[in-house]
Amino acid sequence: MMAMTPERFRPGIGLRPGGERPELEPAVASLYAGLFDAIAGFSRNGINVVSDLGIHDFYARPLGIWGEMERRLGGLPLLRVGVTCPIETIMARRNADPQGGFYAAGEGVPAPVQRWQEAVHAGKTYDLVVDTGAMSPEACAAAIRARLP
Hints:
Helices cover 39% and strands 5% of the residues. The protein has helices at 25-44, 65-72, 87-96, 111-119, 137-147; strands spanning 81-84, 128-131.
């Protein structure tokens, strides 16, 4: 999604919590709607889709993205997986590889990282939760695979 998003709408669905760019928020809702419709189209055609999304509703005004996902993917096979990790582990990983400054890193927990951790799980009900701080990638994948038909 990020690569196909026109520059004027970036960061698009990657817009962080906090209402930092309210002028982009209508585009964010449209981008998510298009993404959910594409996923639904693939699913209806018998194609399995795995999508790694961090959905939050902490914009200048609520956009209802999670509910829109539920509506647009309603009736289709859907496994909602919450991916958690202790903030200390997240910061250790960010500090070990800040991706050339793309990731906020350093001492303590930067405000955008803290907002993300609070916003991304708020009000969500998952079918499965995996903890990437306590589980290996292989164990997370196995837990997810065990829940698939």
